[in-house]
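Worked Example 4.2. Consider the chain below.
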Amino acid sequence: MEVLVFSIFNGLLYGMLLFMLASGLTLIFSLMGVLNFAHASFFMLGAYFAYQISGFIGFWPGLVFAPLIVGVIGAAVERYGLRPVHKFGHVAELLFTFGLAFVIEEVVQMIWGKVPVPYDIPETMNVAAFTWRGLDYSAYRLFMLGASVAIFLALFVFIAKTRTGLIIQAALTHPNIVSSLGHDVGKIFMWTFGFGCALAGVAGVIGGNVLGTEPSMAITLGPIVFVVIVIGGLGSLWGALIAALFIGIMDNLSISYDLSLYPVLALFGVEREVEGIMQDLVNLTTAGLAPVLPYLFLVLMLILRPRGLFGTRDV
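Applying the procedure from the previous section yields the following structure tokens:
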């Protein structure tokens, strides 16, 4: 029973971390129509900036200043990179952000090196929040969960309930009307993109010391973020949340229980004593299949419902 409880709890935590990373990308796409392939790179920058700042003045100032720096960099990218490219269409934007991801990775390696940096959990939170049946659960993980929930609620209120959120949404669909009302549409897009990058920076600050801060972290997490937003539905905040939680819980349960897939194969008449590639399939477990499962669900979603769970447009 305790294995199930902790697996679900860890799955919720991992899922909410994925949501934090996907929320900025969802915001940028839903309000600007830009699919940013470099989004996970801003997550990486948040982790590295937090590591650098926390070495001088501590973790909590890093939690404030690192996302701000990432947000300013994101705003500059939109103003001087994406905006001139925007007139050439979405393909040009995708190519630009795809190349930007590699540039950021190379810059990170030039500054911090190619090996992981010692970005650690703050000592004040590196303690057990509670113990259940002999298993300890970290206070920092509870903080991560609480921060993720707070970000979701703040984003939902900001987009749906505030005047600023309504202006941003209107700027995407009716830019000329918004401009005629006295709003600078260019600045709205610039700071919206920067805000989305800052959200990725927050995820990097909070998750970098748990997942590990190293130059390949963007490549590792980047694909799974796109899986989350495609399954949830492009531009849907609720969809991103549900898809992230589903993937997080599924991943942890698959690894924790490590069940054999042979009973399923036996239903199709596969014998245990086989040779060749079928032997590998017979010996396959859910833990071995866990890294592939999100992508299998992605393929099924694209076949059965291309717009995702709560999306309003097809991929």
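Strands lie at 128-132, 135-138. The chain has one domain: 2-304. Compare this with Example 4.1 before moving on.
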